[in-house]
């Protein structure tokens, strides 16, 4: 079984690696690559995917897990 990881990029998208199926609310799957970049800032014109717009906005978020 693949180890799927979801990484929160500082001031950027969620990055999903290791295998995942992304579907819309109707269960229809999106075509995806090995890594999936999901918009976290809300500004992407290609939601649910990140299109890099976060770099031109004031979006700032860099959460850290407590250990
Ligand atoms: S996180 Fe990249 S466009 Fe929103």
Portion in beta strands: 15-25%
Count of DSSP H/I helices:
0
Can you name the CATH architecture of the domain at 1-18 and 33-58?
3-Layer(aba) Sandwich
Structural class: mainly beta
- CATH class membership of the domain at 1-18 and 33-58: Alpha Beta
Query: How can the largest sheet be summarized?
Result: 3 strands, antiparallel
- What is the typical, i.e. mean, pLDDT? 95
CATH topology of the domain at 1-18 and 33-58: Ribosomal Protein L9, domain 1
Low-confidence stretches: none
Question: Quick one: how many beta strands?
Answer: 3
Query: What separation lies between the terminal Cα atoms?
Result: 26 Å
Oligomeric organization of the protein chains: single chain
Q: In order across it, which strands form the biggest sheet?
A: 1-2-3
Bound molecules: FE2/S2 (inorganic) cluster
SSE sequence, one letter per element: EEE
Radius of gyration: 13 Å
Which overall shape is indicated by the principal axes computed on the Cα atoms? globular
Description:
The chain has 67 residues and is mainly β. The chain has a domain at 1-18 and 33-58: CDGSH iron-sulfur domain, mitoNEET-type (Ribosomal Protein L9, domain 1). Helices cover 0% and strands 18% of the residues. It contains no helices and three strands. A three-stranded antiparallel β-sheet has the order 1-2-3, with no helix packed on it. β1 (5-8) and β2 (14-17) form a beta hairpin. The protein is globular and about 30 Å long. The protein starts with a strand and ends in a 29-residue tail after the last strand. 9% of the residues are buried. Bound molecules: FE2/S2 (inorganic) cluster. FE2/S2 (inorganic) cluster binds next to loops.
């Amino acid at each position: 079984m693949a180890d799927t990881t979801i990484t929160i990029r500082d001031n950027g998208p969620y990055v999903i690696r290791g295998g995942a199926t992304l579907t819309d609310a109707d269960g229809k799957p999106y075509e995806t690559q090995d890594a999936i970049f999901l918009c976290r800032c809300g500004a992407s014109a290609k939601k649910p995917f990140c299109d890099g717009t976060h770099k031109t906005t004031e979006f700032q978020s860099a959460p850290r897990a407590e250990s």
